[in-house]
Request: fold
Amino acid sequence: MEFKFKTLLPKLLPPILLPLAKWMVGRSEYQLYQHYLKHGRIPWSKGYGIYKRQFIQKTLHNPELMIRFQKEEELPTNYGIGIDERCVEYPWLFSHLPVDATDLLDAGSVLNHEFLLNEKIFTNKNLHILTLAPESVCFWDLCLLLGSRNFLHLFGLTPHSLKI
Reply:
């Protein structure tokens, strides 16, 4: 629910209150992050999702690591210990995604995370997210908030149901 709240926040509050609201959300995330670190870094415990997201974001913005993913070189010792497979899958995908690709199909809704959809790599891309049913957190209106980015959620059984 935290991501849905962040997406709706700019629409619900007067502009003058946005900095305060963003600070409050950031503060609670910081507290969850600290809780995760102080309590043994147990996967899927309180604060794990925030820790994982920040770990993945740092990796996506680390040129040295992204080159390792692109060249499929060995990762640093202990990379991703205690984090699920997405800490490898997302950087690998982003490092292998052609810059000139314009149309992408995400069959299974793997990329339906605001922190991923906000990445620059999607600026010139039409992303079609195909999943079986609506998810509790979906970014239907993210393209409106971000301007030129085009995201479309579709529901169906196979990519053959697409008529684009």
About this structure: The beta strands are 103-107, 126-131, 150-155. The longest strand covers residues 126-131. The radius of gyration is 17 Å.
